[in-house]
Amino acid sequence: MKSAFISILAFSSIFLLSCGSGSTAEVVEEVVPIEEPVIQILEPVKWTYATEKVGENEYKITFNASIEDSWYVYSSTIANDGPIPTSINFNENEALESVETIVESGEVTKDGYDEMFDMDIKKFGHAATFSQTIKTSGPTTLTGYMEFMTCDSIQCLFPDPIEFTIDAN
């Protein structure tokens, strides 16, 4: 028992000597930089557009979409309770006489029941084209924007409208 007491006393003395008498142990702080979160902006649809003169004061504007795999763009003829339909909108201009309905086509077209929206929907995958013919009363510059919505099987995106200008001269 006496040897156990001496061992404890020796250990305590060594401990006190290593800490210094009456001092506290030194705390060393290590500053670790926090990494900024990586924000990934999804842009699964890339658009181009072109304007073609098709007659006297008549122009056709065509939007072409390149769509990543598993993503879709929706038709221009969607019911109000569904996804946002693809639309071509013209800003007010007195020279704009008429606007025909949108003609649309796609490389991968799905037309039928959609579980996400619980309704029948027409949507386009991989590539899609939306075009519209307009007629003016004379030379003018037309401006507007194209809106669309895109979804995959788990999420939907509402990208900013794509602005356009048509030099109808």
How would you concisely characterize the structure shown here?
The protein has one domain: Immunoglobulin-like (Sandwich), CATH 2.60.40. Helix content is 11%, strand content 48%.
Task: Detail the topology: elements first, then pairings.
Blueprint: H1 2-19, E1 45-55, E2 58-67, E3 72-74, E4 87-90, E5 96-99, E6 103-114, E7 119-136, E8 140-147, E9 150-151, E10 156-157, E11 162-168
Antiparallel strand pairs: 1-2, 2-7, 3-7, 3-9, 4-8, 5-7, 6-7, 8-11, 9-10
Q: Mind explaining what this structure looks like?
A:
The chain contains one helix and eleven strands. It has a single domain, classed as Immunoglobulin-like. The longest helix is centred in the N-terminal third of the chain and has 18 residues. The N terminus is likely disordered. A hairpin with a 4-residue loop joins β9 and β10. The strands form two sheets. Strands 1, 2, 3, 5, 6, 7, 9 and 10 form an eight-stranded antiparallel sheet that branches. The protein is extended, with a radius of gyration of 34 Å. The chain is mainly beta and 169 residues long.
Number of helices: 1
- Shape summary: extended
Question: Secondary-structure element sequence?
Answer: HEEEEEEEEEEE
Count every beta strand, where a strand is a DSSP E run of 2 or more residues.
11
Q: Indicate the percent of residues in helices.
A: 10-25%
Alpha-carbon Rg, integer: 34 Å
**Name of the CATH first level:** Mainly Beta
Main beta sheet: strand number and arrangement? 8 strands, antiparallel
Which whole number gives the mean pLDDT? 86
